[in-house]
Design a protein that fits this description.
Blueprint (H helix, E strand, L loop, with lengths): L1 H20 L3 H26 L19 H9 L2 H29 L3 H29 L7
């Protein structure tokens, strides 16, 4: 679950770009809800991890699936309107797909019951959130999308 901590930490700056880069209230609302979810996940993951002796989180030092890279974050920081919304949706979809895989792995093979339980909880939310991210991507791809 250390990878999920790193993934969420990398995603938060992307979520913080939304208010200034997207003109779509639906994207802004989605990002606000997603930020609260990622922050709550981080709090829960860190609380569980605090009781364990874990090595330094090496995942923070690498680009891994589900983590927006520095180049992706820079591109999003320069984009606006539909271009931003599409890039943002793509980053969210990649993040959520990888989170789903990690949670499934933890549920199937994790040794710690508390982490398995948290993975189950996160996985439930990820599925619903993934559908909303796909809908936002489709909305931004539509020729009639009217964001700035």
């Amino acid at each position: 679950m250390q990878l999920l901590i790193a993934m969420n930490e990398r995603l938060l700056p992307v979520l913080d770009l939304v208010p200034s880069r997207s003109g779509d209230p639906a994207v802004q609302l989605y990002a606000s809800v997603a930020r609260r979810a990622r922050t709550a996940e981080l709090e829960s993951l860190r609380k569980l991890a605090a009781g364990l002796t874990l090595p330094e989180n090496e995942h923070l030092k690498h680009d891994m699936p589900g983590m927006p890279t520095a180049a992706q974050r820079a591109a999003l920081a320069k984009a606006s309107g539909n271009a931003f919304d599409r890039g943002f949706a793509a980053a969210m979809i990649a993040h959520l797909d990888q989170a789903s895989r990690l949670c499934a792995g933890e549920q199937n093979s994790g040794a710690d019951p508390a982490f398995r339980s948290l993975a189950e909880t996160i996985a439930r939310g990820v599925g619903e959130e993934r559908a909303r991210a796909s809908a936002l991507d489709a909305r931004a791809a539509s020729p009639s999308a009217n964001t700035r």
